[in-house]
Specification:
The chain is α+β, with helices and mostly antiparallel strands. It has helices at residues 11-14, 64-76, 78-81, 145-151, 156-169, and strands at 39-41, 44-50, 86-95, 104-114, 118-126, 132-142.
Length: 171
């Protein structure tokens, strides 16, 4: 990464508008997915989600696996502030309060520290009253450009989008 300087991430990079859109967490074309939309505000990535009954675990409560998926996804987007995609290497979660079905909540994530190969990220979920419901931390390994392009070769528009991201970062 050139000088490891964060930059503002465009909405079209944070949110897939390509020929792929099949990600369970953010893909618009995944009929069973969460369809998350991300925003970059003040070196923080955010998303909002309303807990639905099809994603419940215990009666009237959002399943912990869905919560971890939302946190993993919002935290992974922090890598984009540094001009690369990353894959989860390690993640821990503290469930402080349950999230009831029908609750609209906000998930946030920001970098703790990073180097050439990885980034440590913290994530949080806040309830409508701004109380902290979930805390998380994770390590993401930055994905090399060649691996990312190989992974996306069946989706030319996605591949092109990722290639542009890496070209911008290396200028």
């Amino acid at each position: 990464m050139k000088n490891n300087i964060p930059f503002q991430v465009a909405e079209n990079i944070l949110n897939d508008n390509t020929d792929y859109q099949l990600c369970y967490a953010c893909g618009k074309n995944n009929e069973h997915g969460l369809k998350l939309k991300f925003h970059h505000e003040n070196q923080e990535i955010t998303t909002n989600y309303t807990a639905t009954d099809i994603h419940q675990g215990f009666p009237n409560h959002l399943h912990g696996g869905i919560i971890s998926t939302i946190l993993d996804e919002v935290m992974s987007r922090v890598c984009l502030i540094y001009g690369k995609w990353g894959m989860t290497a390690n993640m821990s979660i503290k469930y402080l309060k349950p999230i009831s079905i029908g609750t609209k909540f906000k998930a946030t994530a920001k970098a703790v520290r990073q180097n050439r190969k990885l980034i440590e990220v913290s994530g949080k979920i806040f309830l409508p009253d701004n109380s902290l419901a979930i805390e998380s931390s994770a390590i993401f390994l930055f994905i090399e450009s060649k691996k990312l392009l190989k992974m996306s070769e069946q989706f030319p528009k996605l591949s092109s989008s990722w290639k542009k991201l890496y070209e911008i970062n290396n200028k």
